[in-house]
Amino acid sequence: MNIILLGPPGAGKGTQARKLVDERGMIQLSTGDMLREARTSGTEMGLKVAGIMDRGELVTDEIVIGLIEEKLEGEKGGGFIFDGFPRTLAQADALGALLERHGENLDAVIEMRVEDEVLVARIVARSTCGMCGEVYNDETKPIPADGKCTNCGGTEFNRRADDNEDSLKTRLLAYYKQTSPLIGYYYAKGNLKPVNGLGEIDEVAGEIAAALGG
Ligand code: AMP
Fold first, then answer.
1. 173 CB contacts (<8 Å, ≥6 apart)?
2. Which residue among the candidates 39, 87, 122, 193 is catalytic per the annotation?
3. Choosing from 19, 122, 171, 193, which is the catalytic residue?
4. What confidence tens digit (pLDDT) does each residue in 13-61 have?
């Protein structure tokens, strides 16, 4: 089963993708993670996208489609979770063509709905474990007092450079201008499954499971 997690920044796509990986053995393909990795390892492409990402703008379709294409060549089976991709209509068309070329289907597009005020509150308080990516929130899920990640025991926590109010405004605008047309696109294709992304992590996971047919 191949699915897309679609939603604005802070909707919980990464958190739910990680659960699907743990529980169903699916393969998470997050273009945001791939781009951050390229930056950390200092590749030419990584350096090129750094400023764009920090401002909260979208990197070119060509770059992200190339990244996904590479991963689809290398990975097999398990089912893919596209997390943060596609983000434009051109990316959606390219994904359709790529899946077809690999003899794969797109089974569902989970649209994670969360109000804008909640997104802002979630993102400005967000940090993640540097080892396993577990997500923490200063208000609702603070880093444990012993300084150890509850999931893996890691002791380093990071805040994303683009998790600040200025970048977030640009990221939200990019979502509404460039990504939200995908909701209509996938509705018309019959793939869209809206899910309320506001509840506790396990509640949202339950809704996603129901949308995917248990
Ligand atoms: P994310 O981790 O999904 O929030 O992505 C972080 C940043 O990476 C975004 O704000 C964009 O600058 C860039 N990015 C990630 N995925 C894409 C994509 N599919 N298309 C264009 N830019 C992307």
1. none
2. 87
3. 171
4. 999 999 999 999 999 999 999 999 999 999 999 999 999 999 999 999 9
